[in-house]
Amino acid sequence: MSDTFALFLEILEIVWINVLLSGDNAVLIALACRALPAERRRIGVLLGALFGVLLRVGFTLIVVQLLSVPLLKIMGALLLVGVAIKLPNQKIDHSKVEAKPDLWGAVTAIVVADAVMSLDNVVAIAAAAHGSLRLIVFGLALSAPLVMFGADALLKILDRLPILIFAGAGLLGYAAGELTATDPFLARLGAPPPHLETLAGGAGCLFVLAVATMWKFWRKKAAT
Questions:
Q1: What is the DSSP letter of 36?
Q2: Which of 48, 180, 188, 197 fits a 20 to 30 Å CA distance from 203?
Q3: Model-level pTM greater than 0.85?
Q4: For residue 184, how many C-alpha atoms fall within 13 Å in the half-sphere facing its CB?
């Protein structure tokens, strides 16, 4: 695999993860700004999304540094596995999102909510970027317009093609497996076996898809 193609795949992985995990953030932005006049609503959406992306870049860079501490990558991987398993089965209620009557009130609400909701997104992007600052910034910057202006279309596509959500869950599982395999703690146990990252990523992907599928099947059976 050429370096250019590998770089393209890594960027695609970051964009996909960010879009998949940021769909609800985009809906939250729209709902928080819904009481503003039309002109201020556009400004509110833009500012809220911009500050949200800047905040996420800062959080991701902090997480990248923290992941050099032994066992923290394994903890981050466990978080990603939990998020990935829930992803195809979650139903998020936005009915309690309060519409703010003023521009800066809406922007503040968006930034605070985004900070609270973004931990899984930040860890996933840090894992997918393998610590590369350029990939993190570029991937987030590239996906920001998709989240800001295409949230409704993206959510409709995901509703029609739930297989894309399962694929995204599998991608998160793969990232979790890779993250576990590169934890500094494991290096203390001796030289890793060949292709450990790929094998761990594949195992994480299969585990997430199997558990998520069984959970979805169980929920359907319980509802009948």
A1: S
A2: 188
A3: no
A4: 8
